[in-house]
């Protein structure tokens, strides 16, 4: 779910020159560009406010009106961008998941040398971070709501599959894991499943001390599984 696509009505600036009508050298400013940027900014505010509301209030407490108020826009503006509540919240989870995945990929530029345990530890910690912040809390509320609401279930199931596949691809790339080796794919998926479990444990209490120890141990397991030369 990306930014809105600007709409252009007809050809401008490329028409053949007609007799007595010199080419102007470019189209005059229309004022549409600032309007489109404002529209994109409003959409971003709504998406990020939706994640905050969902993480803090859950599904039942997160209405379009509540999100619009948090974003500082009118309910009408919110409904202009998102026709239904389901549209808004599934788009919000996907939007923030994409941002989080992008930040995770950027970690690759500042990692220790390949094959080092320090590199593996940083990657495992960052992957666990996918499941221990507001995004995971918001997504969890959405999953629970989808289990009870038929109109939401299909969309959330498809969204979770997309986000899960992207998380797996990112983990494989960061760890430089060779999934043609038997057991490597399952090891990477086990790491992500473990990270999700840590995210669940962190929902009610601060589980950071135990999480640090688990991350350290899993880093050793992953490093051995991926770089063993035995």
UniProtKB/TrEMBL annotation:
Tell me which UniProt keywords the record has, alphabetically. DNA-binding
Bias-annotated ranges (Basic and acidic residues): 11-22
- Keyword DNA-binding in record: yes
Q: Which residues bind DNA?
A: 63-82
Tell me the InterPro entries matching this sequence.
Homeodomain-like_sf, HTH-type_TetR-like_transc_reg, HTH_TetR
Record domain HTH tetR-type: where? 40-100
Name listed for the protein in its UniProt record? TetR/AcrR family transcriptional regulator
Q: Where is this region: Disordered?
A: 1-41
Q: Which organism is it from?
A: Streptomyces endophytica
